[in-house]
Structure formats: C-alpha cells, structure tokens
Amino acid sequence: MRLVALATGSAxxxxxxxxxxxxxxxxxxxxxxxxxxxxxxxxxxxxRAANGTYTLECDPVGGTHPEAKRACxxxxxxxxxGKNPFSAVSADQICTAEYGGRAVARITGxxxxxxxxxxxxxxxxxxxxxxxDLEPVLPSPRS
Length: 143
Hints:
Blueprint: H1 2-6, H2 9-17, E1 35-42, E2 52-58, E3 62-63, H3 68-80, E4 104-111, E5 114-121, H4 125-133
Antiparallel strand pairs: 1-2, 1-4, 2-3, 4-5
C-alpha cells in the first residue's frame, strides 16, 4: 500500500496501535516540485548574446536565465490557459515555407510536475510561431 510506504515512524506506530494518524506536515507530499528547466540556445542572431545554456526556476523565480521573471510569467500564462508550450507541431499541420534562421534550442526539466524534453528551430512558419510564442523563455532572434 503506497500510504504505508510513505508513512513516518510515528504514523506506522499509530497505525499498529489502531490510533489516529498524525497530520501530514504542511507543504509535504502533496506539493509539486518547483518548475526547473534548462534552456540551451545556439546560432541565435548576430550578437550571440542570447546563446548558451541557462537554468530557469519558477515558484520561486531563480536560475541563470537572463529574463527569469518574465519567462516564468509567460509560462504561468500558458498554464492558466491550459496549454502546453512544449508540445511539438503536429506532423499533419500545414506550415508556411519560411526560414527564420539557424537558431535551435532545447528545453529539458520539469514544468508543473511534467517532464519536459522539447526541441525548437525556426525552419518553417509553424516552428517560427512556436518559438515566438515561448519568448522570453526562448530569446528573440533579434537579441
């Protein structure tokens, strides 16, 4: 039983004695882990200032991401709208034949308790929009 496996020593003793279980500590097992993402960007724009690997932590905001507060706010808006910004473009999606440059990015980690491993590029209209929708988590190509 999962409850027994997670119980503390005092909880196990109470269960064995037939007594009431002690309360769980506040912020205990039911609190999801904080959002922690690693964002890696390459070939993004002439200044190359936005290239590199950054960490992004939300709730509380932290990490090495240059726009952590704005990036977390953007991710919160996706969550409130019930959208997953890390979903890939559907294989049957018709996309315009545009080229947005050589920029590529990868985001890994956890977001609202879900594992994230998403790749981004700017090789067609759908992927350009996907990148743009995730700014400032991903840097603007104009950075």
